[in-house]
Amino acid sequence: MKKKETLIYCALMPEAKPLIGYLKLTQTKQGYFENESILLCVGGMGFEKTKNSLHSLFQEFHFQKAINLGIAGCKDETIPKGSLFCTNQELKDIAYTSLTSVLTPLTCKDMLKSTLVDMEAQVFLEICKQFLKKEDIFVFKVVSDYLDDTIPSKAYVNELIQKNIKKITPYV
Predict the structure, then answer these.
(1) Which residues contact 31 (CB under 8 A, 6 or more apart)?
(2) Which residues pair with 40 in a beta bridge?
(3) Nearest partner of 8 among 61, 86, 68, judged by Cα
């Protein structure tokens, strides 16, 4: 089994692109970007794609920590777009808030009990907890929208992640 220190999972390429450049990762195969200690996987959006990607990764690699980085919808319009949160543990330098993962995009705020919503963090956590201690797993989400049905542009998602990259990379 190959060893890597850190697994980073992003659903979409625009979420991953800023980190790929910042960490100087090289594409090794479709959706995989690596250096000696990091493997970043762009695995696709949703429960099934996340589950399938992670199962194959954990069969091939041994990781010391895992990070899910991506965008999330937010029901609280007083929270500025671009705000970064860790949703599975409280950290000194990054705000914490609640997150719900859904199977299909959610546009009704009344249905959401948490502050944020995404489409893969729950499955990411469930699978990673089988292989890692919970303190070695991080879910970072950047607010991209207020649950409207507009799909954020690739450039906009890239910009949101880029603005938060220096807050995230100490955990990589």
Answers:
(1) 41, 42, 43, 53
(2) 8, 33
(3) 68
Share of the chain above pLDDT 90, in %: 90
Residue 17 burial (CB count, 10 A)? 18
Rounded Cα gap, residues 66 and 8, in angstroms: 6
Round to whole Å and give the CA distance between 74 and 137.
22
Average pLDDT, the chain: 95
Residue 148 has pLDDT above 90, yes or no: no
Q: Residue 10 maps to which CATH number? A: 3.40.50.1580
Higher pLDDT, 149 or 91: 91
What pLDDT digit, counting tens, does each position of 61-115 carry? 999 999 999 999 999 999 999 999 999 999 999 999 999 999 887 767 887 899 9
CB 101 within 8 A of CB 118: yes
**How many structural domains does the chain have?**
1
Question: Amino acid identity of 136?
Answer: D
* Structural domain span for residue 101: 2-171
> What value does the CA radius of gyration of the chain take, rounded to a whole number of Å?
15
Say if residues 64 and 146 touch (Cβ distance below 8 Å): no
